[in-house]
Request: fold
Amino acid sequence: MKLKHIVLTVLAPTLLASAGVASAQFQKPEDAIKYRQSAFTVMANSFGKINAVVKGEASFNKDDVAKNAAVVAMISTLPWQAFGPGTEGGNALPAVWSENAKFKAASEKLQLAAVNLNTAAQSGDLEAIKKAFGATGATCKGCHDDFKKK
Ligand code: ASC
Reply:
């Protein structure tokens, strides 16, 4: 089964149930910080590749965009389990813990936007991809504004 099919058929309903694809446990707070930062790094790499296409800086290869969007949709489910109690630090502001319901809602906005981006990317419709990409980027920025150190 191809990754994009796994994401579309298996992951999307899971996302809607607000569960990640894995439930990680961490020995030390630093391990949680490393995990979540790694997930964001991988996600930003694929998101950045789509960004270059959307901006016209890279040529539009449907398969590449589809693969990168599938990565964003999948990886967007992962960082949140690594923001548990006692894992304060890294680039996270204290609001992640003091306003955790708001943080969780912001994380869910990204995950849903990423599913929509993935749907658009699998369709290969560049205009739909551009629209969904913009909506996804807005959820990144919205969460950074409130929850990430500048
Ligand atoms: C990226 C990236 C982010 C988001 C954000 C969108 O490519 O690394 O954190 O987009 O800048 O506003």
